[in-house]
Every structure is written in C-alpha cells, then in structure tokens.
What does this fold into?
Amino acid sequence: MIRPIRGMRTLLSLPLLMLLHGTAASALTFSITASATGVGVGAMIDVTVSASGLGAFAAPSLGSFDVDVGYDPAVFAFDPGSIAFGSGLGAVQCASPAPGCEVLVGSSTAPGVVDVGASSLILGSLDATQPASFTLATFRLVAIAEGSSLLTFDQLVAADTTLPIPSPFASISTSTVTLQATPEPSWWMLLVPAGWLAALRRVRGDEAA
It folds into this structure.
C-alpha cells in the first residue's frame, strides 16, 4: 500500500516543475538489508537503506531522496532515536539551512513505517565525490512478538544533481527483505544443556572410580 505523503516531501521540495523538466536516466536501485533476518523476541535488528547504480564519481549522482520503509507493527517496533544518515549527500547534516550545512535531513515515524529523507545543498560537487553505492540511512527495529515481517519501500522518490533544477529518476529498482521473530526459549529449556553436562560428569566420575 502506498502511504500518503508526509512532512519530508516538504523538505525535499520536489515540485511539479521537476516533472516538467525531464527525468534522470539511471539504473538506480534502493535496497533494504538487515543485520539479521531471524531473531528472538526482544532482540534488535539494524536496518540499512542504501542506493546503488549511480555514476561512481561521475553523473548521474543522487541529490535528494525520500523513502518510507514499511514493516509489520504487530511483530516489530521502531527503536526511538536510532535513525542515522550516511554522508553520501554531504557530511555536515542539519535539520534546517544553516551556515556550513551540506545536506538537509529529516525523518518521521508511525507504527509500521519509518520515513527518512535528505536533500543535498552541495549539488555542484556531488558528481566528483559520490561513489556508485552508499548507505542512505540506518535505523533499528526490536522484535516484540512472534511472526514475520516484510520490509518494503511503501513510497520512494529521488532526484539527481542537475542544475538549476534537479530531475527525478524515472525508474528506481528496489530490493526488500523478510524478518522473522521467534519466541525466546523457556527458562527450563536453558537448563537442559546444564543437566546434560552434570550427567556426563557423573558418568565420567563413575568410570574413573
């Protein structure tokens, strides 16, 4: 399901003029990866959103993006304060324009969705400094119940570094990942290996005697 546009779209300012200006041609791919695809309830998973298929220190480069990553809120919950942005669009990040700022970043969350976006203020230099692939943002989810959840791009938009008006990418490929949360073992299950070890020691003691 495509979710409604929220606050980050204002930050990125991708107006209708961009659509009239043309679109960028590139095999741009947005990917979601996770530090683990299966964890026990109560454990955390680091989620990484990345871009690839760019020009590798040449055009086309990524000048701005806004993505919504969806997940099942009945199985996982967002870890507040865990969002971090990569430096591919600029190293000096800020929430509003300020002296020395290189990239505007912003985020919002709701049950089942994490919205992250960034808009570079140094578009003229990105073609020379941006690699072909890099991390856009990372965040953490915590497993709260048994089950599985597909991490998907519910919504995404991206634009290049064309001046004076950046062009949105005409086509963006995506890759997703499925997470699995399993119950924590009962306390008595944890005692079984210890029981085996004690029994083995008794057997060895009897043999030695």
Confidence is low (pLDDT under 50) at residues 1-10, 12-21, 187-192. Residues 187-208 form the longest helix (22 residues). Residues 160 and 166 are 5 Å apart (CA to CA). The longest strand covers residues 147-159.
